[in-house]
Structures are given as C-alpha cells and as structure tokens.
Amino acid sequence: MLLSAGCVFSACQEDTRAALRGNSMQRCKKCIMPSNYPSISFNEKGICNFCTAQNSPEAAKAAKEALYNDFQHTIANARGQGREYDCLISLSGGKDSAYLAYLLSKEYKLKVLAFTITTGFESAVAQNNIRRTIEKLDIDHYIFTPHESFFIKLYSYLFRHINACGSVATVCFICGPILYGFSLKTAVELDIPLVFHGFGPGQPPHTHHFYEMSLPHLMGDGSATGSQIYDIFKDGIFDERDRALLWNYEIYKHKKLPRVLMPLHVLEYHEDAIIKKVQDLGLIAKGKAHPLVTNCLLNWPMVYLHAKKLGFNPYVEFFSEMIRAGQAHRAYWLWMDRILGFLVKIGIFRLQGVRPVLKRLGLNEKEILARHWQ
Ligand SMILES: [Zn+2]
Q1: From the CA of 321, how far away is ligand 1's center (Å)?
Q2: Which of 24, 151, 159, 202 falls 20 to 30 Å from 229 in CA-CA distance?
Q3: pLDDT digits over 212-231, tens only?
Q4: CA 187 from centroid of its chain's CA atoms
C-alpha cells in the first residue's frame, strides 16, 4: 500500500534526494526554509518561493476577518441552547488546546466537554498538562482508549510504509483523521453541535484544513486522506474490531453532523503570549508548554528517521509558516532547528526517544532507513 494522497511535499522525488543530503544550507531570509528542501528556490533578495507565494497581506487579512466573524457568530448561537454540552474540544496536553479550552469555557462561557484519545504514545508531561487543565478549568473530560493493539498495529504499518514525502506526511496525515473521527463520533452520539481542535499555525497543513473541516470531508467522500484510511485497514494485520472503530458516515448519515472548527487560525495568536497565559492560569506548569516535551512520542522516530533519510527537519515548513505570519520568532526557531539537526547527528535522539518507540512497535531503524520511501 502506497501512501501518497494528501502529500504536501509533492516535489519529494528520488532525483531530489541527493540534493537533500547536500551540505549547502542557505536559509530563507524571511522564514527558515533551508536550501535542501524539495522544490525550494530563492529570489535575488534571498527570500524563498514559499514566502513569495503568500497572498497579499490585505487579502489574507480580509479572509481571516470574515472567518473570525463567523466564529463569533457561531459561539453566540451555540451558547445557552439548553444542551448538556455546547461544544467538544480535543485536549492533547499541549499549550494550544489548553488555551482554547480556557477561551471556550471561561471567556466565551460555553458548556465544554474536553475529549482525549489515549494512543499509548503520550508523553508524561502531556498527560500531566491535561490533568492540570481539567482541574483548573473544572470542566468534564471524556477519555477514549481504544484496545491497545489498534495503535500499535497502525503505527507499525505506517512506519513500514513511509512515503516519499516523509515520516510526518505519512504517519500524522493518517493518524490525525482517525483521531478526528473519534471526536466526531462522540459529538454526534452526544448531540454536541460544535467540535473544536486547538491547532496552532500550520497544523494541519492549510492544504488539508484551515478554519473548518468541510462537510464532504466529514462525510468521508475521500477528500484529504479519508479513503486512504479505509484502504490501509484492508491490510491483513487489521481485523473487524479495528475497522469498527473508524468513523463511518453511513452509520450517522441520518443525524446532524457538528461543525468542526480550528479557531486559533483566525484568532489573535502569538506563541509567547499563549505560553505565558496558560502558565499564568496554572493550566500548564512553567517550562512544560514546549512542543518538544508535550508532543506525541512518535515525534522522536519521525523527526530522526526523516532527518536521517531526507536531510531536513519534517517540521521546518510549519515553523516557517508561524514565522511568516509573525506568530513566532525567526531567530528562536532557526536555533531550535539547528539544535534538532545536531541532536540527530550525534545520536541523542536515537538513544532517548527513537529506540524505545521502535522497539514497542516491533520495528528496526536500519530496515526503515534502507527501505525505498515512495
Ligand atoms: Zn521563506
């Protein structure tokens, strides 16, 4: 099974691989996109094609304002309708979803159900952050834990089938929609009209979703990665019990689907301010808000294997998007990106985080790196 649809790094082809491993490392002067990134080019001022392809600031501002107004309108209509819950929010243990849970429950005064899926690959810091956030906000929390072999089989399959676009584009772009499906099912079953995901800038890629997941996507018509998921689950390692967990629109087609929104993309966002806010509110302890400590443990092998095989950090495009939008500091993320590259090079990543995860998945680093990523 090849995983290729939904790939945002479409120029990631075999003939670019040699260049990816090259030593020349020019960086865009506006963001931090490196010269070894597929399909990158720089103008005479040293600005990359990702930056120059941006919409005009005026057009982007107007589009964002319209979506912001929709968000305010939607919240006002949802509040006080006599439902048990006005909205469901996915809580991951990171700063962004904690901040959004605060906004929705305290600032916008909605009746919030927090929702978490246990994959078995959460960091201890993320789990503590979730507990703190729930306690401080005093909101209901629903935790769904699928049978353990579900995620072990899924991740093991995905790491054995990494595509030409790399580890994140393979693992996260399939796992993400499966997780969205769990929250969607819960919202439909509990008659909750709104589902929120606290994604920060660039998550998921705007080519997939920006402010709202479209109705065709929720109906599972194959847009984005929908149909690929069902194809993957035809593989012999999965059984009926696994397939029954997936979102299946046919079961719910007579019910009203909730709207699924990602409002942090249209609200005021600055990384430093959000970290300060969640720490001041006590939702997350000081020093426990950084993505490096809150991210899913699969990030260790994903970043390591991707950097080893393709020569660049799989998140560099996401970092760059935040910098471009003025939501994060270029100097800081340039430094972070270099540190990550250094850690991969000296092998710290492998010892600390890669080996334990691959061992649990029954995988071998050498075999994954030797395989043709296509
Ligand atoms: Zn750039």
Answers
A1: 8
A2: 202
A3: 988 777 777 544 455 788 88
A4: 20
Q: Which amino acid, 100?
A: L
Sign of the alpha-carbon torsion through 12, 15, 17, 19: negative
- Show Cβ contacts of residue 160 under 8 Å, excluding neighbours closer than 6 positions: 363, 368, 371
Is the CB of residue 373 less than 8 Å from the CB of residue 163? yes
Backbone angles phi, psi at 292, to 5 degrees: -60, -30
Beta-bridged to residue 27, according to DSSP, are 34
Residue 32 Cα to ligand 1 middle (Å): 6
Bond before 263 cis per omega within 30 degrees: no
Q: Are strands 194-197 and 87-90 parallel, antiparallel or unpaired?
A: parallel
Distance between CA atoms of residues 154 and 142, nearest Å: 23
- Model confidence over 248-294: pLDDT tens digits? 888 998 999 999 999 998 998 888 899 999 999 999 999 888 877 77
Report the predicted TM-score, pTM, of the whole model to 2 decimal places. Answer: 0.86
The domains located in the chain, with CATH, are: 56-287 (3.40.50.620)
* Cα of 212 from ligand 1 centre, angstroms: 26
Cα distances from 196 to residues 124, 162, 284, 306, 364, in angstroms, run 24, 29, 20, 30, 37
Q: Which amino acid is at 266?
A: V
Å from CA of 306 to ligand 1 middle: 21
Beta strands in the chain (DSSP E): 87-90, 112-117, 140-144, 194-197, 259-261
Give the integer Cα–Cα distance in Å for 110 and 78: 8
